[in-house]
Design a protein that fits this description.
- The chain is an all-alpha fold.
- Helices cover 88% and strands 0% of the residues.
- It contains four helices and no strands.
- The radius of gyration is 21 Å and the shape is flat.
Length: 98
């Protein structure tokens, strides 16, 4: 288990330094791009992410507000607490949020 945690820590460090390098390169290249192009690109990315945020909010409401969604969550939690099976939780999260 510790080996897996060390591997995850090293991978997280690798990702951090990789994205930091990319950020620095983009920051240097930004000097030649007009502000209106940067704003229009940012808005187009926000629009495409809006659909995912909407679907995640709907899934959150279904699983917390509707009775059937709460029943599903209670069944999964009971299975984790009693039988120590985490598989159904992973499938539920994967299906709801991916």
């Amino acid at each position: 288990m510790e080996k897996l945690l060390d591997l995850l820590k090293s991978f997280a460090g690798f990702l951090f330094y990789h994205y930091k390098g990319l950020y620095n390169e983009l920051n240097k290249a930004r000097d030649h791009v007009p502000l209106r192009f940067m704003i229009s690109d940012f808005v187009s990315v926000l629009r495409s992410c809006g659909m995912f945020v909407t679907l995640h909010a709907i899934a959150l409401l279904v699983f917390t507000v509707l009775p059937l969604g709460r029943d599903v969550l209670l069944i999964v939690v009971e299975e984790i607490a009693v039988q120590h099976h985490v598989g159904n939780l992973l499938w539920l999260l994967g299906g709801a949020f991916i």
